Model the fold of this input.
Amino acid sequence: MMKNRYLPTVLGLYFNYIIHGIGVIIISQNQNALMEQWNTDLTGIGAVISMLGVGRLIAIVFSGPLSDKFGRKPFVYLGMTTYVIYFVGLVYTDSVVVASFLAVIAGIANSFLDSGTYPALMESFPQNAGTANVLIKAFVQIGQFILPLIIGFISNQNIWFGWSFLIAAVALGLNMFYMWRMKFPDKDNKDAIEANETEEKTVIQAVQFKEKPKFSIEGVAFVIYGFISQATFYIISQFVNTYGAEVAGMTEAAANSLISYYSLGSLLCVAFTAIVATRIRSVNLVLVYTFFSFLSVLTMWLWPTQMIMQVGSAFVGFFAAGGVMQLGLTVMGEMFPSGKGTITSIFYTFGSLASFAIPNIATWIANRDMRGIMLFNTVIAAIGFVIAIVIFVRYYKVVNVHAENVKN
Done:
């Protein structure tokens, strides 16, 4: 990967996700100052944050196909530009309504970045696409690690809170300047085709097929998997502390620490997957990760003790939240290589739908029987494992795994 000619481009793409990680939590990290500026309370802050998901869902439906048509670079730049508007706008507005609109803009920015970045990474590293995609999570985590440090410094120095927003905006502006002349693989491939340089066409395809994949089978399976994989770790991230306290009988402090075990597992998986995904096919990792995710959730439902909850939270973080969703998208990109922007939109649209549907269902269950929330997640994880088996079987049925141009 280090010798790849698109590495300078990829570094710029990854840097964007450091800023994206900052953008996701910057409202909650500055909530006290923003409540005063916007003349609102925590409910208003929560409403603004929820608009991030609305914006993402609005744009992800169309941004992928347009990325296939107009190229990756324009959508990366659209994402960067709209994020700058978000950061600058939030810090200068005094209206919750305007802030909500800007949060929608940020959700749209996230969709633009995804629609340009994921396809570009898969096209830049066709033989190591799993590693390339999973590393995005690492850079998001870097951003979410850095921001509290920045805010802590600003607070200790009694500096205006808005500098945390402006620093992010300026960093994006500098990255836009850095990436201006960078080459993108889809543009190079188009130029090669126009010049009849057919040997360059393999840049966007890492597999050869024994038979053509069927969207009615593989495509539908991936769509369901996009929904399920998002739902599995979302339930844990939102309810594990309450479940630990009410069902496992943990103290409040011990229950709250479960999210730390979950986050640690996620970070370890990113590092682990970045290494092994260069040697093991992504489809194999999807099957293994989904199976152990199911076992982890099942164990937390059957034997909810403090130790089981701690280990289980770390395991769910590792196997469900540490990059399996990105690996699923990678495999889908291998099986449908001609429209990576479109499949990114399709895959993440259903992941976004899970973010809307699952909280409502899960909250309804939790209000009636907290233990039922883990049973619900066990059923979801079991369905995910069945879908992963379908994907695994169909992959080896249609993909020529012995082709010389496939390297894992």
